[in-house]
Design goal:
Elements lengths: L2 E3 L6 E3 L1 E4 L9 H13 L4 E3 L8 H11 L7 E6 L1 E2 L6 E2 L3 H15 L4 E6 L8 H13 L3 E7 L3 H13 L4 E7 L11 H8 L2 E5 L27 H5 L6 H15 L3 H10 L4 E6 L4 H9 L7 H11 L5
Parallel strand pairs: 3-4, 3-12, 4-5, 5-8, 8-9, 9-10, 10-11, 11-12
Antiparallel strand pairs: 1-2, 6-7
Helix pairs in contact: 1-10, 2-3, 3-4, 4-5, 5-6, 8-9, 8-11
């Protein structure tokens, strides 16, 4: 893995980030420890989590692992603003809630700061100035080294940047969905991020598993699309024009002697403005495939062919 700067900031991350959304759910403590150990052995430094993942279980597991290692060698990325404690998804980006969730996250993670803290999503019902004031306070009190946002559109990103700039605090990153089957960020998010100097962390770079090719012959029983909680999200990436993209990825994989996942990740990690890919894996086998993408070099003509076939995937 390579170490890269996030946008034009001084924050350095590994170009693959280990996601923990499934920790405490489909990934238990034992598997999490194995996955994190393999990730670290491969040179990975950056781990992404959130207050709402597993109702806090993901942070609790990660905190136990962090406590047993060298915190200074890790880059912890956290998010706040979404919770599921009531059984349904609740978005609250008020200053009070964000700071309360930050303190809870730090307690679970057994650390006194996050290296990068993000507002998990945009909310229309809270003034942006109030939301950004929580980020400013986190930096000024030392609870966050860098701050940013997640799932913000281009104009939302620029508006947030303007408020933080007045406080002399840079907006460092925007974490958004981006892959060969979700290229919408290219329209305005990536240009906006470049304009303000922010880096982009790409979540779901495999399109929820669609780009691995595992759905080409149906929906596996243990897949995301078969899960009641994720059916709607995954279904958006199945069928239609996505099929031609998946076929092109599979063809490229056959020609290069690689897996479709390696091809898809290699394409995404080299896109302009992308600082790191946030990859969630459920076992060591999946992680090995992800790590192998670091050694996968796409010939220019194949990269261009994938670019052409997926260009229609603007969302």
């Amino acid at each position: 893995m390579q170490s890269v700067n996030v946008g034009r900031s001084g924050l350095r991350v590994s170009d693959l980030t280990l996601g923990t959304m499934n920790w405490g759910d489909t990934v238990d403590e034992i598997f999490a420890e194995e996955i994190m150990r393999d990730f670290r052995d491969a040179g990975g430094t950056t781990i992404d989590t959130a207050y709402g993942y597993g109702d806090g279980a993901a942070e609790q597991i990660l905190g136990d692992l962090v406590a047993g290692g060298d915190r200074d060698d890790l880059v912890l990325v956290g998010k706040a603003g979404i919770s599921r404690t009531t059984g349904s998804r609740v978005v609250d980006t008020s200053r009070g809630t964000l700071l309360k969730q930050l303190d809870a996250s730090l307690h679970r993670l057994r650390t006194d700061h996050l290296d990068l803290w993000l507002v998990h999503t945009w909310a229309d019902d809270v003034p942006l100035e109030e939301t950004m004031s929580a980020l400013e306070h986190a930096v000024s009190t030392g609870r966050a080294r860098y701050v940013g946002v997640s799932n913000y559109s281009g104009w939302q990103l620029v508006a947030a940047h303007s408020i933080l700039r007045d406080a002399r605090i840079p907006l460092t990153a925007n974490e958004v969905e981006y892959s060969l089957v979700a290229r919408g960020p290219e329209t305005e998010v990536l240009p906006a991020a470049d304009h303000v100097g922010a880096g982009v962390l790409a979540w779901a770079p495999l399109g929820g598993g669609v780009l691995t090719g595992k759905y080409r012959r149906g929906v596996p029983a243990d897949s995301r699309a078969a899960s009641g909680r994720h059916t709607g999200w995954a279904a958006r990436r199945l069928g239609g024009t996505s099929d031609s993209v998946v076929d092109a990825v599979a063809t490229a994989a056959d020609g290069l002697g690689a897996s479709p996942a390696q091809i898809a990740l290699s394409w995404t990690r080299t896109r302009p403005g992308i600082s790191s890919l946030v990859v969630g894996v459920r076992n060591r086998t999946q992680l090995r495939t992800v790590l192998a993408s670091a050694e996968t070099q796409l010939p220019p003509q194949i990269a261009q062919a994938l670019d052409d076939v997926s260009r229609v995937q603007q969302v």
